[in-house]
């Protein structure tokens, strides 16, 4: 079931708009900043989503693949969020994506 959901998620992203090669790197930089943000670190998981949403709205146009990816993963089970972002980045950019800050924070940023 997880594989089917994951496949559907990646296929939706493939059909979305073109992504700039550095968009996911920009997402990583955003989360690197959050590692030093006391308000973010003290916030509960749902409040963190609101903080990320606000930051993404400033950095990316509505409907960008990064925002679409974020909107999908924030509702995923915590242990799958980072892998889903990696899969989306690879599907769109055809390169491996790694971000230690995102990997660390994403499990406690979402609705599940």
What labels describe this entry?
112 residues, mainly alpha, 70% helix, 0% strand, globular
Summarize the structure.
The protein has seven helices and no strands. 70% of the residues lie in helices and 0% in strands. The mean pLDDT is 86.
Describe what this molecule looks like in 3D.
The chain is mostly helical and 112 residues long. It has one domain. Helix content is 70%, strand content 0%. The chain is built from seven helices and no strands. Helix 5 packs antiparallel against helix 6 (78-93). The longest helix has 16 residues, at 78-93. The model has no long low-confidence stretch (mean pLDDT 86).
Question: Can you give the helix content as a percent range?
Answer: 55-70%
Number of helices: 7
Strand content: under 5%
Low-confidence stretches: none
Rounded mean pLDDT is 86
Main β sheet profile? none
**Whole-angstrom Rg:** 13 Å
Walk me through the topology.
Layout: H1 2-15, H2 23-34, H3 38-42, H4 45-59, H5 65-73, H6 78-93, H7 100-106
Helix pairs in contact: 1-6, 2-7, 5-6
């Amino acid at each position: 079931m997880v594989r089917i959901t994951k496949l559907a998620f990646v296929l939706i992203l493939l059909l979305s708009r073109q992504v700039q090669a550095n968009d996911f790197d920009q997402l990583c930089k955003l989360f690197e900043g959050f590692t030093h943000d006391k308000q973010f670190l003290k916030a509960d998981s749902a409040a963190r989503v609101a903080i990320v949403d606000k930051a993404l709205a400033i950095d990316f146009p509505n409907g960008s693949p990064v925002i679409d990816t974020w909107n999908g993963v924030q509702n995923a089970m915590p242990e799958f969020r980072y892998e889903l972002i990696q899969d989306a980045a690879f599907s769109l950019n055809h390169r491996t994506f790694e971000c230690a800050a995102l990997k660390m924070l994403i499990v406690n940023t979402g609705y599940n």
